[in-house]
Design brief:
2 helices, binds zinc ion
């Protein structure tokens, strides 16, 4: 499961990574952008909401002519915060329509999002 790793140096700079809970820490991870060494690191579990992505649906249909299809279409993708499960829409959407669809998934927990997904069948 991925979690937030939040670092802080003595100059109160903070920086974070979104990495596996059991990630093997590297020395460079503990340096702030100004070169100070971290004095604290906290592991924080992310909120249970889905991550939303718009995947470009276009692809090269004819390499000879360079013709693409679905150039301005997107597939809708949701991922749970543990990044163990994701769903990709069967349908392709225009930018305007996929924004409307995404709005329905705003702030949804993973279980709420899966339920909505199977109801909408995007
Ligand atoms: Zn610093």
């Amino acid at each position: 499961m991925k979690i937030y790793w939040i670092y802080r140096c003595d100059d109160n700079h903070t920086w974070e990574f979104f990495r596996d809970e059991n990630y093997q820490v590297k020395p460079e991870d503990s340096l702030c952008p100004y070169g100070h060494k971290a004095v604290t690191v906290e592991k924080r579990f992310p909120i249970d909401q889905v991550e939303i992505a718009f995947r470009p649906a276009g692809y090269l249909a004819d390499p000879v002519t360079g013709r693409y299809v679905f150039e301005k279409k997107y597939k809708f993708v949701i991922t749970n915060f543990r990044e163990t499960k994701f769903l990709i829409s069967e349908k392709r959407y225009s930018w305007e329509d996929i924004k409307v669809l995404a709005e329905k998934f705003k702030n949804k927990s993973a279980s709420e999002a899966w339920e909505l997904w199977y109801k909408l069948n995007p």
